[in-house]
């Protein structure tokens, strides 16, 4: 019996993308950076509004409710819009709403009105939600479907650049120094600049010629006959008959709930607990943290972290998230994405326990480490949920984006009341979310072809 061999080409991973898609790919990836900036800037505003407008910790979480509630509101409209007008016009709609919301901060800041500021943030976040709903299936179509996990995870690594920039910019321009009650001049100036930059990028993208995407993303592509490949059979099912997609929506809801809660109270955790002297067993970690505080964050040292310094540490944690996504992009060539997802979910359960103990720099280090483990969660759940959906991918993307509403509800209505009494104890609650993500990674991700 003759031996058969597999050619090296057959064993090689599929190409990352194609040359004809490079320019479009660069623009789409830049969108990930833009909404990373917009989302983490909201966490800086959370603390700033507590200081300047005298809003409580729980009520300041309405910042997250406005931001991520907009994702829920715009999820389906964005999906219908891109089905009707295409990906490029969907991107332009998202950038237009983003820019408009940024400019609406000007009258809201002049009025020093918390509800008006939330309204401006809601419009801006409608743009973010539109971009996110459009960019994922857009990116999925810019090459071989088999390499979509790598493209999406890489793009979320670039998203990390924007996410890191948000707390750095916000900490320097908004939180630095003392501010009189009602003084929102720094916020007004910053968002005027953001609106101008985003609007300019939208104008440039309007002139980009987008090549045809792969056939699976073309609405005009007819459905295949049932006698063809298993993927065609899967794509012929109704959207909510795809069990792995439904699981992805649920997993994304809980994932973003944990992420939104972690980010909403990060700066509060730094300002509330970093002045506590630790026991002798962890004194060495305390001294390392003190040195890091002075050299990296330009802090005056212990016993307390100023809000702007805590924001710099938040930015440092997002560097870890960005590096984790680059690492995840590489590891997914050798390790199944669902296995990586399961591993980081378990790791974050343990880290949350450490954070809740408020052991000085040990717990603060665990809080920083949560973002490293967050790194691959959102893009991996997204890409696994979109597998083998065929003509449903555009609408499926919208429903998964709507799961981001978890980040609107969890910080305000679940973690918020606990955080009013103890920010540290509130970090026990995200463990529930990671259990759901783990179950998705264990079994829920599987595509049922029957």
TrEMBL record:
UniProt key word tRNA processing: no
Gene Ontology molecular-function annotations: transmembrane transporter activity
Superkingdom of source: Bacteria
Assigned GO CC terms: plasma membrane
Subcellular location: Cell inner membrane
Major location (coarse): membrane
Pfam annotation, one family: MFS_1
Transmembrane parts of this sequence: 21-41, 61-81, 90-108, 114-135, 156-175, 190-208, 245-266, 309-328, 340-359, 365-384, 396-414, 426-445
Membrane topology: Multi-pass membrane protein
Alphabetized UniProt keyword annotations: Cell membrane, Membrane, Transmembrane, Transmembrane helix
Protein name: Sugar MFS transporter
């Amino acid at each position: 019996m003759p031996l058969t061999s597999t050619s090296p080409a057959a064993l090689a991973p599929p190409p990352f993308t194609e040359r004809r898609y490079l320019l479009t790919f660069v623009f789409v990836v830049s969108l990930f950076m833009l909404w990373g900036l917009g989302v983490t800037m909201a966490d800086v505003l959370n603390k700033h509004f507590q200081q300047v407008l005298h809003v409580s910790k729980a009520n300041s979480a309405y910042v997250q409710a406005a931001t991520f509630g907009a994702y829920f509101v715009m999820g389906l409209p964005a999906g219908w819009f891109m089905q009707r007008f295409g990906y490029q016009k969907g991107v332009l709609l998202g950038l237009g709403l983003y820019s408009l919301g940024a400019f609406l901060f000007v009258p809201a800041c002049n009025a020093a009105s918390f509800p008006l500021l939330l309204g401006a943030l809601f419009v801006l976040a409608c743009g973010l939600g539109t971009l996110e709903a459009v960019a994922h299936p857009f990116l999925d179509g810019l090459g071989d479907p088999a390499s979509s996990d790598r493209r999406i995870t890489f793009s979320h690594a670039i998203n990390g650049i924007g996410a890191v920039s948000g707390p750095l910019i916000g900490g320097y321009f908004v939180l630095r120094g003392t501010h009189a009650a009602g003084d929102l001049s720094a916020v007004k100036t910053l968002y005027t600049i953001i609106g101008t930059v985003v609007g300019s990028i939208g104008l440039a993208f309007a002139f980009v010629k987008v090549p045809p995407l792969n056939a699976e993303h073309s609405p005009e592509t007819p459905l295949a006959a049932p006698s063809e490949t298993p993927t065609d059979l899967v794509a012929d099912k109704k959207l909510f008959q795809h069990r792995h997609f439904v699981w992805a929506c649920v997993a994304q809801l809980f994932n973003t709930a944990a992420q939104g809660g972690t980010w909403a109270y990060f700066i509060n955790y730094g300002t509330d607990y970093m002045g506590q002297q630790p026991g002798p067993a962890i004194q060495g970690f305390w001294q390392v943290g003190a040195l890091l505080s002075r050299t990296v964050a330009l802090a005056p040292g212990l016993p307390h972290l100023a809000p702007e310094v805590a924001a710099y540490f938040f930015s440092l944690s997002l560097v870890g998230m960005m590096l984790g996504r680059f690492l995840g992009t590489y590891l997914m060539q050798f390790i199944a994405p669902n296995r990586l997802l399961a591993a980081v979910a378990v790791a974050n359960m343990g880290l949350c326990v450490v954070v809740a103990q408020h052991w000085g720099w040990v717990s603060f280090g665990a809080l920083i480490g949560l973002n490293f483990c967050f790194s691959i969660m959102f893009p991996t759940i997204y890409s696994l949920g979109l597998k083998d959906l065929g003509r449903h991918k555009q609408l499926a993307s919208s429903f998964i984006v709507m799961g981001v509403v978890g980040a609107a509800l969890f910080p305000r209505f679940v973690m918020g009341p606990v955080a009013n009494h103890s920010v540290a104890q509130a970090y026990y609650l995200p463990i529930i979310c990671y259990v759901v993500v783990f179950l998705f990674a264990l079994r829920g991700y599987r595509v049922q072809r029957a």
